[in-house]
Design a protein that fits this description.
Number of domains: 1
Strand content: 25-35%
Length: about 120
């Protein structure tokens, strides 16, 4: 188990309900709930911009990343995101994480993100 802020692109994981701790799958072949599509810092400055602004930025970025996978790769999947809380922002967390998950909430098996994404 690791803090959600320590995930990397390509990681397959499950998480607690608060999305604060991730249980990394040994491999993406192990059943998991999410896979990290991309992680990149927010471009909204140094002061905490608010959850609404971060969510809007993540929605746009993750929708573009998800669409970039192509319709065949995204069939049965949905795009999700994680944004920094005000508390984690104060500790230096600026990363927006784009995730893929099953559209019906079922566990995934295998990687759904191309290598090098």
């Amino acid at each position: 188990m690791v803090p959600i802020t320590e995930l990397s692109a390509g990681d397959c994981f499950s998480s607690n309900a608060e999305q604060t701790v991730a249980t990394i799958a040994g491999s993406c072949g192990t059943p998991h709930l999410y896979q990290v599509l991309s992680i990149a810092p927010s471009e909204l400055g140094e002061d905490f911009p608010g959850e609404e602004a971060l969510t809007a930025e993540a929605d746009a970025r993750c929708a573009a990343d998800f669409a970039g996978l192509g319709s065949d790769a995204t069939a049965g999947l949905t795009a999700l995101h994680l944004v920094p809380s005000e508390a984690s922002w104060a500790e230096g967390d600026r990363d927006l994480a784009c995730l893929v998950a099953s559209s019906d909430g079922a566990e995934l098996t295998g990687s759904h993100v191309p290598a090098g994404s």
